[in-house]
UniProtKB/TrEMBL annotation:
Its EC number is 2.7.11.1. It comes from Candidatus Parvarchaeum acidiphilum ARMAN-4. InterPro entries: Kinase-like_dom_sf, RIO-type_Ser/Thr_kinase, RIO_dom, RIO_kinase. It comes from the Archaea. Pfam families: RIO1. Belongs to the protein kinase superfamily. RIO-type Ser/Thr kinase family. It catalyses: L-threonyl-[protein] + ATP = O-phospho-L-threonyl-[protein] + ADP + H(+); L-seryl-[protein] + ATP = O-phospho-L-seryl-[protein] + ADP + H(+). This is non-specific serine/threonine protein kinase.
Amino acid sequence: MTKSKVFSHVFDEETLKNVNKLQGDGYIGNLLGPIGTGKESYVFYSENFKGRVVAVKIHRHNIDTFKAIPSYIRLRGKNTGGFIKKINDWTRFEYNFLSKAFNIGINVPEPIRCYENIIVMEFIGAEGRPAQPAIKDSDFDSNEWYPQIIDYIIKMGRNNLIHGDLSPYNILNYNGKPFIIDFSQGLKLSSLTKSFLVRDIDNINKWFLSLGYKKIKESQEIIRDIDENL
């Protein structure tokens, strides 16, 4: 996609104001990239006033994109207002979820700032090159990764958190360690959302089975481990 198309897809008037606010406050500088794209967002990288490289995730103010995920918004409970406010609320939810995961010791990008539809967080990579998703970079030890990722799922579950879209596409391989990203579909654990937890576990199990890893824990065993320690 050309730079002009990226600009038209992402930077509506409100988003430009939000970017300018974060630049004025020193959280980001010029936006470079993008380094990641999705149905709902673009991720750029930038350098803040301290010289630190950061990732900048912008949720698009696009009602058609927003309508593509109604089930997740519905499960998050009451969310009133126009679609721009809902997207901003959704961004804040993702940021809070990321913060909770970071605070309980999950390998995730460090959250730095959330403003309206923009999240500023730690850049996972080096010299402006982002770490690759594990689906593209399988240079890791499954005997180390599988127990660690399952431990992350359990730890999040015990803190009432579900990633909601966990797969090798949302796990970065950085220096041989797994970093979980993209909590835009994160959910609070409840009887209504437990099926999403099962799906996350099944996705990870299928992936590691495809890699030849045999020491798989069944989803019900993992859920019992979570339930017994809530």
